[in-house]
Amino acid sequence: MKESLETLRAEFAYEKTNSCVQCGYCLPVCPTYASMGKETHSPRGRINLVKMVGEGRITDLSVLEEPLDLCLGCRNCETACPTGVEYGVILEAARAALVRRKTFSAPVRMLRNTMFTKVFPSKKMMRLAGNALWLYERTGLQTAIRKSGLLNKLPYHVGAFEAITPGAASPAERKQMPQRIQAKGQAKYTVAFFTGCIMDAMFQRINRLSVQLLTEAGCSVVVVPEQTCCGALHAHAGEMDEARKLAERNIAAFEKESVDFIVNNAGGCGAALYEYAHLLADEPEWSERAQAFTEKSRDISQVLTACGGLHLQPRPGERVTYQPSCHLTNVQKVTREPIELIRSVPGIEFIGMEQAHMCCGSAGIYNLVHYEQSMDILDEKMKHTKATKADVVITTNPGCLLQMKMGIEREGQAVSMRAVHLVEYLAEAAGIS
Prior knowledge:
By secondary structure, the protein is of the alpha/beta class. It has three domains: 5-101, Alpha-helical ferredoxin (Fumarate Reductase Iron-sulfur Protein, Chain B, domain 2, Orthogonal Bundle); 104-308, no CATH class; 310-430, Rossmann fold, CATH 3.40.50. Helix content is 52%, strand content 7%. A five-stranded mixed sheet has the order 1-3-2-4-5. Strands 7-6-8-9 form a four-stranded parallel sheet, with helices on both faces. It catalyses: (R)-lactate + A = pyruvate + AH2; glycolate + A = glyoxylate + AH2.
């Protein structure tokens, strides 16, 4: 049965598209338009496709799949738009509308259901994944498989990503994270720390260092045990109902604690938490609670800065540059604090990166499912990264961190350049291991 235009307009957020005047200010800041050169792969092109659906000029919705799928969702276009187009809302709605109508093959449907409902939201499953990675490294299996060349035969360029995956925390280390940690000295704030799912499984060391930095800066930290995945990956994949369920679970979990801030250390997760108020705006039971949650949500750089910074040791002559997370910059609007913290390290030379605002091509799992397109974007990013001649590239998101590590390896720069998370760099400078 043919769907009514009213239904399509509602589901595809058609009314939001009317703010776009097709001026083209978004074109120079769009990484996919820059790398692919197609109007349909630009923000205004994608908006125009959605508009044509709402006006009945496009009836075959499959023509939207590739343009929307190849969008990084970096939201850089929103910062350039003179009319305030809510591109993120349009993209989110259109992707969800397409997913609702898409018939997946049985294996793909099973995989999506398993990952989105059984794995990412489950702390037990993510802990098992982290422990399995540790066993893979410690038993010698990693060395044997690397020598066999098997990794290079696996799909999604698994071998390339396996080579840059950080060392996993041991099961014993994972158990060492207490639920309540007192501030060192007089407490300035009480904060709840958001551990995330991927962060907790693969970057547990960064989580541990984050808590240590917060306590050093004067925060008492609560690690809420009932918290779950932020829902970012679900939203990017058009699984909005699951994203809302996860938001509700997190809100209910963090409401149990009386804290000043809810702190995260991943730009992508932080953006999802920051947008809970938007995500649940139409849910009467949750809208006010979501707004209260959003108002407390902070990136770790904001809280460390609010505490007055850290006592850091000199690192004379070290050349440092910063690759900002798109979602930290464009959604959470956090730009000043990470740079201030980096510059507070005595003795370093901070070099600003040209085109720093452009996405590195990570974008959740974009670099896995769209590897070639992602590498084209990364190669452009690395031109500007190499030009800084930096010793250290600092990022604020796990996906960006892996992507920049990949770029450094691809460019043969690993001897002279390294990529680290902001938390890792500050911990080094603070003498925390």
